[in-house]
Amino acid sequence: MGGLATLWPFVAQMNPDASTIAAGAPIEVDLAPIAEGQDIKVFWRGKPVYISHRTKKQIDEARKVPVSSLPDPQSDEARVKEGHDQWLVVIGICTHLGCIPIAHEGNYDGFFCPCHGSQYDSSGRIRQGPAPANLPVPPYQFVSDSKIQIG
Amino acid sequence: MSGPSDYQPTNPALKWIERRLPIMGLVHSSFVAYPTPRNLNYWWTFGAILSVMLGLQILTGVILAMHYTPEATMAFKSVESIVRDVNYGWLLRNMHASGASMFFLAVYIHMFRGLYYGSYKEPREILWILGVIIYLLMMATGFMGYVLPWGQMSFWGATVITNLFSAVPYFGDSIVTLLWGGYSVGNPTLNRFFSLHYLLPFVIAGVVVLHIWALHVAGQNNPAGVEAKTEKDTVPFTPYATIKDAFGISCFMLLYAWFIFYMPNYLGDSDNYIVANPGVTPAHIVPEWYYLPFYAILRSIPNKLAGVIAMFSAILILAFLPWLDTAKTKSSKYRPLAKQFFWIFVVVCVLLGYLGAQPPEGIYVIVGRILTFCYFAYFLILLPLLSRIEKPRTVPNSIADDVLAKAGSKSAPMVSTVIALAIAGALFAGSAQNARAEEQEAPPSQKWSFSGPVGKYDRGSLQRGLKVYKEVCSACHSLNYIAFRNLADPGGPGYSGAQAKAFAEEYKIKDGPNDQGEMFERPGRPADYFPSPFPNEQAARAANGGANPPDLSLITKARSYERGFPMFVVDFFSQFQETGPNYVNAILQGFEDKPPAGVSIPEGSYYNKYFPGHAIKMPKPLNDGQVTFDDGSPATVAQYAKDVTSFLMWAAEPHMEARKRLGLQVFVFLILFTGLLYFTKKKVWADAH
Questions:
Q1: Out of A15, A48, A130, whose CB is closest to B177?
Q2: In which band, very low, low, confident or very high, does the pLDDT at B424 lie, cut at 50, 70 and 90?
Q3: Residues of A with CB below 8 A from B302's CB?
Q4: CA-closest candidate to residue B76, choices B144, B152, B185
């Protein structure tokens, strides 16, 4: 018991320190300057977050796919906030081995990861390649119609 | 390490020490009187070569650590300072970086030798497992060392490899956060990697002691695979093994020096001369060559967790080898089937390594899967099966008999030649495939004064190139790692100290704060660095249509292009390494007013024949007559491009002339020394053969 208790600080010190955690506080992003069909990349906790202003075509494509046919089944509605269907907010880190996918590339009008060829659709869901899961949606909410808070 | 020694010192002082600490007896019994089989071939010298490499890596590493800064914003710059400013820093860095590759090359030969001659079999199982542990530690050390320069490949390699642990069910993400000490690879990660990279080599040294201890208990295996029985089977370690090892080491040093002095970047990746950027992933992440076979195995399996498990199993399976191969005959020399399959296995490993460097698409994925299957089949199906069905040839009665029968067959070299040809053919086919997929035209090769083993910079060209940089490029591109004083350095543009001082004074440098707490401008001094045209990256992007003009200090090393299979082998011998200058030169001349039919270029971009993707944000920078030269050189774009590229090559590697000069001296010495060792060895062994 004593030995394990002594071991704990030696392991726990490796986790993010207080300043790193503090720097990971929520951030606010203004959506007004992002035109339809455009997207921006902001950094939160050292991770790139893609905010896409999706076109009607992209939304339709994402919703037409039968959910059960997806490798990681999730509906597009579950990945965006209700009433803000055009806004897709995802963490831009490939769920395979952590590279940054490129927006507006690949066969699904979404993201393409240059490292090992994973392709995500316009809802950030994995469609093809070695990645096991969809691009994660970070915790965020709309503060107003044109502003979100991530974190 | 092998029983009590009969070492008796005669000197009274040594006697006094020996009674209290019998260290000389230990050394004597382990490295002087120790009996080694007399039929050992040169593959057995790699143990000694590895010990020397470990020692050299620790020595150069400890020195580099005295100059290196393990901090995310300074690490890359500190490595550049080592190479540029520390006395012989370029030499130490090349030794350490190439040394890692040489270390792995030697360890692979050492492992394949063990595999071929059955050195893992009873009673050497623990010896072999200790070796696998050393290999694992080496891989961890090598990986963390590669992260330290904090270039793009360092950063993204670290991201990909640490993310392997996220495949662990349930705890994956927590483990990765624990490894990073943050929410992504960052400064805490770099710090702990540095600490561990410093620690692990000493752990390796410790396990090496155990490895040698176990070796000296069981005794060395040998090409015949029969144990030494009588005194006639062995020769004392000194002088026989000592001189043979020394000759082997000396030959290996020749290869090592070839990399240090002539091909320092041959095994590296040009992307690692770009400072780490968490926002941009390199198009093609490739680990160092010594991890490539395992990387290919990882990528050939479509499921993430299964891929990670396969990769680690590919290494761990080695530890179980003594129980997978149960054949009584040790040496493959006497196992007709095992011998052939061994060479096929070598080819499989080489091909997997080749695939690990290719993009994961099309034919490469399918071939990767087949070879991954072959890799595991060799250990799990073939070796256990062979031990049951194979009829081995009769082994010699003793080592002495083996030595006497040496006049025998020479079939092995022929088999390996056939196999080498097969590899060459396969690789060639692979690269032909690659060439077809390539739509981009490679930059034309230029004649550079600095190429080859005795190449030097053309002073006039460097001076003209500096003028082009100052009058044209410096409007947008910084040159952060070059100070005005460097212009007067030996092996550079050849200005005097006074000329460099006058050159510096033409610049306004921001300094301060002064006593009033305000920043002020003053004329430049030789110690100042070339000022950047923009105060920060955002300003640079805003002024250039969203693209950041890259710093030019390392551009000729940070840009490259694929040379394909037959060429990369030829390049090793011809010392061709001017892909960077060829590329920069081609970009400067590759602008065309109208893109060819069928190619559309986005607004705000320009068509460039040699730029990947062809759409470059930089407008055509050079036009005929734009810069006038005092020495009467033609004022043409071709001349400007060539001169500024030469200048930038010097900026990327200011000590190149010193490197090649010292290289020549080292080679003359090493060749003479190796020759002397060879004849000494012949003399010593004359009565043993």
A1: A15
A2: low
A3: 130
A4: B152
Residues of chain B found within 8 Å of residue A45, distances taken between Cβ atoms: 182-184
Which pair of tokens denotes residue B272?
Answer: 């690692």
B244 CA to chain A: closest CA distance, Å?
Answer: 46
CB B563 within 8 A of CB B583: no
Q: How far apart, in whole angstroms, are the C-alpha atoms of residue B663 and residue B260?
A: 8
Residue B96 at interface with chain A, using a CB cutoff of 8 Å: no
User: Torsion angle of alpha carbons B429, B430, B432, B437, nearest 10°?
Assistant: 150
List Cα–Cα distances, B170 to B173, B174, B177, B220, in angstroms: 8, 9, 13, 46
Residues of A in contact with B72 (CB under 8 A): none
> What are the b/e assignments for B240-259, b being 16+ CB within 10 Å?
bbbbbbbbbbbbbbeebbbb
Q: Write a three-state SS string for A94-151.
A: CCCCCCCCEEEECCCCEEECCCCCCEECCCCCEEECCCCCCCCCCCEEEEECCEEEEC
Chain A CB within 8 Å of residue B366 CB: no
Helix (H, G, I), strand (E, B) or coil at B524: coil
Residue B112, SS3?
Answer: helix
Is the minimum CB–CB distance between B546 and chain A shorter than 8 Å? Answer: no
B520-553 per-position pLDDT tens digit: 999 999 999 999 999 998 899 888 877 889 999 9
**Cα atoms in the 13 Å half-sphere on the side-chain side of B212:** 16
Phi/psi of residue A28, nearest 5 degrees: -105, 140
The strand order across the sheet containing A110-112 reads A102-105, A110-112, A119-120, A126-128
Per-residue CA distances from B404 to A143, B101, B332 (Å): 89, 38, 19
Q: Taking a C-beta distance cutoff of 8 angstroms, is the pair B225, B118 a contact?
A: yes
Answer yes or no: A84 catalytic.
no
CB distance from B305 to chain A under 8 Å?
yes
Torsion-angle region of residue A47: left (phi > 0), alpha (psi -120 to 50) or beta? Answer: beta
Residue of B178, B183, B281 with shortest CB distance to A99: B281
Cα separation, B642 vs B633, whole angstroms: 12
Token pair recorded at residue A105: 């590339």
- Model ipTM? 0.73
* CA of B276 vs chain A CAs: smallest distance (Å): 13
Query: What are B356-381's pLDDT values in tens digits?
Result: 888 777 788 899 999 999 999 999 99
The residue behind tokens 């540029």 is B84
- Picking from A42, A47, A97 by the largest number of B CB atoms within 10 A of its own CB, the best residue to mutate is A97
Of B159, B188, B283, the CB nearest to A98: B159
